[in-house]
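Appendix B.2, paired examples.
Example (i):
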Amino acid sequence: MADKRPRPPLIGCSPLLRPESPKLCDLAGMSELRAWGEAFAQDLLAFRENRIRWEDVDPGVVVHGPPGTGKSTFAKALAASCEVPLIAASYARWQRHREGHLGDVLGAMELDFRAAESHAPCILAIDELDSIPTRRPGDDRQDWWIPVVNALLERLSGAIARQGVAVIGICNDPSRLDPALLRAGRLDRLIYVPMPGSGDIPQILRFHLEQAEVDRLGDLSLFSVSCFGMTGADLGKLVRDARRHARILKRTLNIEDFYAVLEPRKRDVDEDRRVAIHEAGHAVAAVRLKKADGMHVSIIDRGGGSGRTFIGSGHQLITRDSFTKTLTVLLAGRAAEEVLLGSISGGAGGGPSSDLAAATRAAIDAIANLGLGDTSSIVWYGTSVMERPALPYRGAMAKEVDVILSAAYADARALITNDATAVIAVTDALIERRCLAEAEIRSLVGGDRPVRSLVD
């Protein structure tokens, strides 16, 4: 007689988790993803109550964004909110299975999907999904990657069902994914997780703090301006470091511990003023040119010696006028040093995130891809021009980029000269308070003033 006893759920290659926290309601800085998760949780409940079919539930999603923004935490929060198990997989785990041969990798993938099915309803999270590259013709490892991608495609749809299993793909760069993974019925939804906004940072800090610490610290909104540009992971580390600082001093945690670990060393007075003038230049230019929405400015030295000016990236049509103003704001920090100090430093240059790099990329993109140059040429050079600008950045286009940047820098110098009093006011406030939010900057800058070189 056949054994009718239920079989125990299968054990996969990757760990099976039953998270209880955080919940979706605890997450901050990922409003679109959280909304998707809440809708999915409602659909999953309806499926479990036999009110809808599994075919009516989203099969999964690809979550992408910068490292440290909470993508993996979302998978745990979704499982906790849905009260279902989570299998935390990744290509690296699959490759470590047994000897790591191709058959072992495919076997590990199969084990995890079968384990997820045996625990259904279940969430299978595949971290670092972009480690599995697209099947490119001519790739010298096609004999490896084609079977891996094909096996994953088969498991995501194909002839093998995954009833009750939602797949969350997690990656930094979705452009590396094989397009077949993203087609309808597989992982057909892409959701970007941005860096935390100014309103999200206090909530993330409170999540990492004990309730007694939250009560003692009070309103964190002012301090959160100092943390703008930090990821959720950075903020968690900040809380740990601040606690350690308080323990060393044998006292309860207070806001001074956060400032102490956020800026462990102080610049000398002259360097600090130069950095403040540089950031004040950006800030005043952004206000005058109506590019200051969501702006935060900080001269807290979080490493590297420079300050930071963050400006929200609102959605608007890009015109020649708007991108020229953007260039002017990017170059206004360097201009402020030249106008107010009589010399310039290398603070505007450096790596790919520097002012000069960002301005150069914007100018190249405007000419090569957006058709916003001065010449009659409207040739489209393609997006690769942004990845490897040295190749097409020559000849007539190089000259035009130089002309555009030079004109924007002249505008920046004129603006700073015309508004030196406002730049100095913002500089002094930055030196005293270390960071300023948009409303404070607007108050210091005052009402609109004409910028002659931009309107003549």
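Example (ii):
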Amino acid sequence: MKFISKGNTAEIMEYNSSLVCKLFYSGYPQIYVQHEFNNANAVSRLGIKTPQAHRIICVEGRNGIIYDRVIGEELSSLINSADKSMQTMWINKFVDFHKVLLSHIIDNVMDYKCFLKLFSANSVEIISRINELENGNALLHGDFHPANIIVNTTGELILIDMMNICKGPVEYDIARTYFLLENNKKLQSEYLERMGYHLAEITPYLKVISLIRENEKKIVKAEPDI
């Protein structure tokens, strides 16, 4: 298979003209691969624009997921390279896409509190803070940022990376996105304002996200030193 790109947990390989293989690094747990596959299908059934996950394969001891191939450009590149008027348009599309995503109700995915506790390192303080957060059953992406959205050749926004899909209150996903945009303070501020939220409304979630972030990066990062 021809190499296309690489990330923290997998390489994207060309499978054929219409499909790609997200080929996870050696040693990446098979249960996580199955988890992403199930998430991708759950989201697709809701009508969210995302590559269809077809099947799980194994190549030389590495697990992979066969996805529909999407030809396009990362939204992050378009936002960063656009002039002011086009940048505003892309940011609005980004926000509108997130609002649509969060409008869906879902039950057959992991609860976000269970997800957060995976990275608690059994800390009594962190688990207590997680338990104090609100419950909910909105569809949450858990990693919604412009680099996880592809703008295809017809201008449609396509959501990728389903590993962190879960259910919970919309404020959690908004807080995750706000946190992930910390290197672009202007975009971070504009995103929150356009979503119609104030910082105080997501602060309890931001505190937990900050507490678990280092553990999360250690566990999720499976890329070998090459």
